[in-house]
DNA sequence: ATACTTAGTGTGTAATTAACACTAACACAA
DNA sequence: TTGTGTTAGTGTTAATTACACACTAAGTAT
């Protein structure tokens, strides 16, 4: 229930602040990146942080996350998922702040539009070489987001959200390898992804050094959420942060 | 980040209430039960609800959940996991309430101690025959908790948390069947669970109508969290409520 | 032509899953 | 004391799937 009936009186209680933090991933030059913002004042002045902000009283958590996402990147209609809620009493030195963390995946397509330059206080960092010490407990949040990302990649179509509209099968395989941190067998990957029936062949080819490669499109029919492309059955659990 | 630096001023913001709701499962007579409490006043007077309450300013979310759990059941040191955070603006008609939902699993052992009788306003309900209309959005929360429970059962040792100290392999199989809602092959179940090496044979037998059955104990060494007993590889995703 | 490079396919074996028949150990009754 | 019912637990095999790796395809450059 929402209260102990006998003692309910909203004004009697001190209330925590509630924020939404959004861990935003994208693919740049074939490498996984995360968006961070530079803090300009106390606390953690000069540290990079995960973008976020207070929720408004009349918006849902999801709406708040989408609003943050659009404020930072300008993109809409991308994959967004609630990650976990962080609420240690001392995580923010100013006041009690409870933060509902989200993950967002921005397709490679959109990335040029809102990338900020080197001197900006909003930047894409490659996850492999991201700053080590983030503000607040944001290291914990980011690490957990990454572990969730990896684990979901193995049993959902999440990886497709990272790719542009059309892509080659080997590009897709590269993403899997990068995020899973492991080499995959070319032949088995081809077969498995074909059998899954989630790709739609286009008439496009891309020329390169060797044989030109066929380009494919992700089939967004058949109800997205239902269908699961499971790359492999084995997966580590992802239960709790840290 | 925790704020937009330029606009931060805690007192300017209206703050939502934050509660912790705990979906508490246990096994009674070999059947999965959930603990609900009866609301005695507006709103949703006369409806059953998931137990919960406000967080205190100086406790973490986990601590709040454990406190609620102990207040309702008296048990400590049981499995507890954050489920999801529910924050639709209108989910509570009184004021904006954001609820961090948890799942708790109480072993069959402890159940007699704090079971409340038929007339009480705190009751264990079999999940199969639970009340259909709960207070607030608690149907959504409970359904999501169940789906999470099912999905975790398939790739973790969670089911063991439901059982008493010692149990037979076929009792364990019953739990899997009940929660997965599906018949499992006896022989295959035996083999798989034995091979996993997570059970420790006891010298105990339990007599019944037919051949007496051997009792086993769950091996809690080898780091609990690490080890995963995967009943079967196939599993539905569990991503979001609804 | 032929060597080089990247794309994509085929194939055999090992490992797992899944179905089901079988044996074991007790109680009870004729 | 032998048979029958009942629940416990084991063995066996066919079918499916995963995995490693060898192969063919289609282009470019020399």
Short account of what is shown:
The structure is a homodimer of 242-residue chains. Chain A is of the alpha+beta class. Chain A is built from five helices and ten strands.
Q: Overview of this structure, please?
A:
The structure is a homodimer of 242-residue chains. Chain A has 242 residues and is α+β, with helices and mostly antiparallel strands. Chain A has a domain at 5-153: Nucleoside Triphosphate Pyrophosphohydrolase (Alpha-Beta Complex), CATH 3.90.79. The first copy, chain A, has helices at residues 61-73, 138-153, 158-162, 169-180, 186-196, and strands at 17-28, 31-38, 48-49, 52-54, 79-86, 97-106, 122-126, 166-167, 199-206, 213-218. In chain A, the strands form two sheets. In chain A, strands 1, 2, 3, 4, 5, 6 and 7 form a seven-stranded mixed beta sheet that branches. The first copy, chain A, has a three-stranded antiparallel beta sheet with strand order 8-10-9. The longest helix of chain A has 16 residues, at 138-153. Chain A is elongated. The two termini of chain A are 30 Å apart. Chain A binds a DNA duplex (30 and 30 nucleotides) through helix 5.
